[in-house]
Amino acid sequence: MVGMRAVVQRVTSAAVRVDDRPVGQIGLGLLVLVGVTHQDTPATAAALARKVHGLRIMRDELSVADLPEAEILVVSQFTLYGDARKGRRPTWVAAAPASVAEPLVVDLVAGLRTLGARVATGVFGAEMQVESVNDGPITLLLEA
User: How many domains, in total, are found in the chain?
Assistant: First the structure.
């Protein structure tokens, strides 16, 4: 059974804007684009938080848990559950509705903060512009 998905990028900086206003930004750390599907639970969000926090993809095989200066920017992204296997128009049926997804993204952020991470966020459901400087480049797809 597939749970929450996250595209995780090691970055030297990342920022998110809404209506041309900055709402979240980080320096060195991880940009985490997160998608939620129907069967996800708070336990899924907690498991993903632990996985992201301990992921050893920073320089010298360290994790953000090992680097006091590292930060995490979490941005909700329902399109991670888009399915374009048939035709050219993706379907979004695997993505959880906002009423299910938003509290789980909040749980993910809370879980990361409980683990000691400094976390910035986008705005759930908003039209966002995300900028990042991928370091490495390192990009991973995680599933909890």
Answer: 1
